[in-house]
Batch of 4 targets.
Target 1
Amino acid sequence: MAFKIEHYIDADNKVPILQKRREQTQTEDKVVDRKSDKMMNTCVIEEGNKNGDFL
């Protein structure tokens, strides 16, 4: 049985901290892409827009 859980993080209207993606091997890139796709498909994460806006 799966539960849909949502939470809210109060960031006090501050801009999120964005970090540059670190360099990875091609094998690591494939793993990251596969896991990211899985999390997006199960609604754990959402795709952001190109401007870096999260809201």
Note: The chain has a mean pLDDT of 80.
Target 2
Amino acid sequence: MTAQTPLANKAIIELRNATIGYGGVGAVREATFSVERGEALALVGPNGSGKSTIIGVLAGLTDLIDGEVEVLGSPVAQLRERWRVGYVPQASSISDRGLTVWELVATGRLARLSPVRPMGKTDRGAITKALELVDLAGLERTRLEELSGGQLRRALIARTLAAEPDLLLADEPTTGVDVATRESLAQSLRTLHEDGLTIVLVSHEIGPVEEIVSRVVALRDGKIDYDGPPRPSDRVGDGEHHHHHHDDEHHLFHSDSSLTAASSTGLIK
């Protein structure tokens, strides 16, 4: 992925004493860390520790209550080109399974379009490349309801990649699927990382993606408990499953309500 602004010497993410939460209630308190361009970082910790809250503020889903969060050189609330931050939710957030793979992935390009700049050859090329990167070429006309769990997750990644973002946020990308699917998803993430994409993922274990994750930020009870290289305990996880906060789910379903409408307008054909 190609950077859109010169940030070669600046961290792509900066949190400084950030308190983050929902409705004014802090779920993560006084978090400070940065992520460099090209880095692959995993947020780990028990269920309810604050992993999803942090990835949520980077994606614009949760509230910054105090402190500072900068993404791509701008305060997160002032980031105008939101497409530069790609967010991959859990597959369960897709409410309309009647769409085709192409229609789903093409919606990821909508933020780059406007009434005076409809989809053109460059946009279709970006969609095709996104499908190729996650090994879904040839399934463009397949309906989402016909996909396996792993294929659907790869389609969600492709939807995000269609916008050609600078940063990929992935929520539990390899959880709840069989071994073969997990390896396929991990390979897709490896390819993206090798292509220079900065990746931040939420995971209760990093085993499937340990080849690309060079750093772990571990949370416990809303505080950063560890920041450094992966530890043996991070590879096997804590045995708990991750669940979105209900506000995250609201935002995800709300955003996906645009899929059918976008398809019906002809913007994504």
Note: The longest helix spans residues 179-194.
Target 3
Amino acid sequence: MKEKKMLAIDKTAAYQMSLKLMISGGAR
């Protein structure tokens, strides 16, 4: 259970980071 939660959090964190990168990249 704990591992699954950590994986989900890691996934969302990576998703948010990629979103930020795309936004900053598009702004350029």
Note: The chain has a mean pLDDT of 84.
Target 4
Amino acid sequence: MGKIKDFLSNIGFDDNERYEEEEMYEEEDVVEEEEVQEEPARAPKNTRPAAPAHESTPAYRKAGSIETIKPATYSDAHKIVEKLREGNIIVFSLELVDDELAVRILDFVYGGTFALDGKIKEVGTRVYVVTNAGINLSEIAGDSQQKNPNYR
């Protein structure tokens, strides 16, 4: 057994060094433990659940009113979506704008309508109705979507 200890001490495994290192760790690890009270797993019955930090509003509400808008610029598309967010039904006509601007306005309104889970329907030549998710658009005689080449 002495030969093994000699061999181990020659390659750096000296028992005395290991014991000294363990004593250093023991001195560092000594921490006074405080008594910890365990909390009950369930909340007492007389407490109320926490209220949310803010009230969330649904993306749609019941129809407030019917708004008629004749957009003349691209910024009017934002007004259409804002009116939709307020819970209104919007009827808008793109008869007064050129084709390129009409497509841009339609793209914006379609995106906003999709984001709010609403519906959009062409009810006449370049005349559209936009509603919230809670409102159904019934079919009008004929399918106007097939008549409009700009319909997407």
Note: The mean pLDDT is 75.
